[in-house]
Amino acid sequence: MTEPFRRRRVQCASPTGLHRVAYFEWGDPRNERVVVCVHGLSRCARDFDALALALAGDFRVVAVDLPGRGESDWLRQPLEYVVPTYVNDLVTLIARLDVESVSWVGTSLGAVTGMIIAAQPESPIRRFVVNDAGPVIAAVALERIGTYLGKAPTFTSLAEAEAYVRAVSATFGPHTDAQWRTLTEHVVRPRPDGGFRMHYDPKIAEPYNAQRPFKDTDLWAVWDAITAPTLLLRGAESDLLTREVALEMARRGPRATLVEFEGVGHAPTLLAANQIAPIREFLLRRS
Questions:
Q1: Closest Cα partner for 18 from 69, 67, 53, 65?
Q2: How far apart are CA 272 and CA 93, in angstroms?
Q3: CA 93 to CA 108: how far, in whole Å?
Q4: Burial class of residue 122, CB neighbours in 10 A (0-12, 13-18, 19+)
Q5: What is the DSSP letter of 204?
Q6: What is the pLDDT of residues 197-251, one digit of tens each?
Q7: Is residue 83 assigned to a domain?
């Protein structure tokens, strides 16, 4: 069966050398209306399959595997698994796409990375969708994520892997069995012994855990510098983005339009129709 996307790679640089970043592309490659989608800390580009298919008739959609994840190279120096590296790589990707501006859909880490780029003078981000992240990231959520990040579990079967993904991703909220299987298949890789492993370099946890003891982040200066029209999505039960912070994000900086999803924590997976619809409407809206 022909895949509905095109697999591509772009060469990027870090202080310790070169690495290749994988990305997937849907829609007409000549379309200048580009949407760049960037995943969360331990997820991957294929999380955006459903959204990409919903947008591909109107946009060229590009979803990227951050280095150390999915089909992208692992970095030689684990301490380079940090936001400045991701910013550099994604700016390189935008240059490869050969467009003057993009819309950005970022989940969690992908949203924080987008915030840094969107806050820059002459930023290429013209519309910004922030999925369950903000200038204040709660320490309690950072601690929760740190309990499983980089543990490098292995599994004897896909069913065992799915049980693990359901457990560590319970905050995603209710999903069908088929959706849980999809969320699992995208983040595991076969092992030579016939089992499975997680798709990411376990060393991405090294710079993350170096932040202990975790404290709430403060990126309000970054948020206040953003001028692009912004849509803010929040799981109503999110422990990473509190409602207080989300309401403040709607009042200052780009004055984001806030949409919340009941029964969902961190982070909305953008698989359900009611989560895709506001993104599509926002990206198609005339300035």
A1: 67
A2: 28
A3: 19
A4: exposed
A5: G
A6: 999 999 999 999 999 899 999 999 999 999 999 999 999 999 999 999 999 999 9
A7: yes
Is 142 domain-assigned?
A: no
Give just the sign of the alpha carbon dihedral 41, 264, 175, 35. negative
Range of the domain at 94: 6-135+217-284
The one-letter amino acid code at 213 reads: P
Beta bridge partners, 13, equal 18
Tell me the two tokens of residue 84.
């400045």
Torsion sign (Cα): 171, 175, 181, 183: negative
pLDDT digits (tens, 9 = 90+) for 63-120: 999 999 999 999 999 999 999 999 999 999 999 999 999 999 999 999 999 999 999 9
Apex CA 52: angle with CA 49 and CA 14, to 5°?
80
Structural Rg of the chain based on CA atoms:
18
Tell how far CA 57 is from the center of its chain: 22
Q: How far apart are CA 40 and CA 244, in angstroms?
A: 22
Per-residue pLDDT, 287: 55
Residue 75 falls inside a structural domain: yes
Specify the residue for token string 């200052």. 252
Amino acid at 183: L
DSSP 3-state of 241: coil
Helix residue spans in the chain (DSSP H) = 49-55, 83-97, 109-118, 139-146, 158-168, 177-185, 205-209, 220-224, 243-251, 273-284
- Cα torsion for 89, 93, 94, 95, to the nearest 10°? 100
How many independent structural domains does the chain possess? 1
Tokens for 276? 């895709």
Nearest Cα neighbor of 226 from 156, 137, 134 is 134
What CATH number did the domain enclosing 32 receive? 3.40.50.1820
